[in-house]
Give the backbone structure.
Amino acid sequence: MRRVAIVGAGLTKFYRNTQETPKELAYEATKMALDSCEMTLSDINCVVHGTAPDAFDGVHMKGEYLSDASGGLRKPYMRHFVGGGTGVFSPIHGWFHVASGMFDTCLVVCEEKMSAAYPHPAGAFLTIFDHTTEQPLYPTLIYIFAIEMNRFMTTHGYRKEDIALVAVKNKKNAMNHPSAQLPGEITVQDVLNSEIMAWPVNRLDISPTSDGAAAILLASEDVARRITEKPIWMDGVGFCLDTAYWCTRDLYYPDYLEVAARQAYKMAGIKEPSKEIHVAEPYDPFTYKELHHIEGLMLAPRGKSVQMLVDGAFNRDGNLPTSPSGGLLGVGNPIAAAGLMKIIEIYLQLKGEAGKRQIPGKPTCGVANAWGDLMQVGTVVVMRS
Amino acid sequence: MEITEKMVEKTATKLSAEEILGGKVLSVKWEPKLKYAWDNGPAIGRYLAELKNGKIIAKKCDKCHRIMLPPRMFCELCWVPTGEWVYVQDTGIVNTWIVGYVDWKATRLDIKGGVRPITPGIIEIDGASKGMGILHHLGEVDPWKIYRGMKVKAVWKPPEERTGAITDIKYFKPID
């Protein structure tokens, strides 16, 4: 297999309601990614697109709908969808195309417009549940994530006030992110005093409804070296799907993520992830989920992530900065685009081009993950400078 | 190349809810009306028929010996057809739970007005294999007094009101 590099990136602003259509958002991000490395569409061999449920937009065949805007006109083009895991799966999908030798360049575009589902996109998720045994009980995503958070807390004895520090950290980090929707300086008390959505989840424990798009450009090694002096290499990829019988798994630990991470670490030759990885973008649609993923990525021992958080290990100047972008909690959560935003953050951090968000110590190895479906999919990418 | 404020500022334009709802920007509204009749297959079909009788039935894998809920025709771990049907109890323990202040559409409940929070959880059913949980609601309990490991029992609808659905169990209530 050939080595694959990320050579360009683009990102729109994230807002709750954008005037722009999904196509217009996808176009902006794609154009920025091409411009960032002085490439044009004629240099692009193929395009992959990641976007989450069609129900958000009310447009079936959403991949086809977004293809022109993503630079896919009359090119090999493919859309993929693995729920919330889509954004970090998207570069993996592109990686296949380039690593296999079939294509030298691949545009990877992710777009999400959640605000169209009215009055709230949460309702669109009812139909992800089993139609006979679960839908009649009217579950929703906030419930099942709160259910998982509670299991995580009761298993390890974690406290809500400690987990709330993830929101404090990420929203603060987002203050330096140009695309950020919900940056800010908040306190643990603000999180605890925010409205209860589904205890143990309060409003500030959750990422917002967002619209936005992101894009990156992948290239094979020889092409990448002609495009840029600083390609960022995709050295390990992994993905894994657990059972949809989500009530029969012990939700305290994300096994599916550990499987995906081990696959990616093996490919990248990483033996001790907590020592060899310098920066991480664990998927953080909810506060607890960043910690859950840090444990699943084996960056902290099971049951120890909260202590490391409290000790400051995950701060921008800590031993292992996590979500230096500001994450989904701070930058926003246009599902697929949010996952790709995390990939872009690692790309910029390893290039030393993260601006005010740049972590100290010249990081050379980073990891990003995303998660979704019925709390069952793990997608992982390891990158090196 | 750093992604800067200047680069992203014109990529998207922020609208307020008022601008959309007040018709200041034009939008098209559509309410899908989709109808389905789902076939449930032999495993869930029997499960539903037994619920109508006030019983919970599981299916056993002869290879890993798990007694599985909801019942299924093949074991997803061993990848073999499942074996015998096994009646399990209508009691169990709370594996995990929540106290919901919003409904499935994320619409806020009038908690201050006296509406009871929605309290779904995962119930590990007695007689099924350890950890074999189902999603259901908890009732006849103070939402703030639910705890992990709490013993619960199904509260059934009266037989004449049952339809062969998961909602033939109204909820699970605590037992001592």
Observations:
- Chain B touches chain A through 61 residues (CB under 8 Å).
- The first strand of chain B starts at residue 56 and ends at 60.
- Strands of chain B lie at 56-60, 67-68, 85-88, 91-97, 99-100, 120-125, 133-137, 151-156, 169-174.
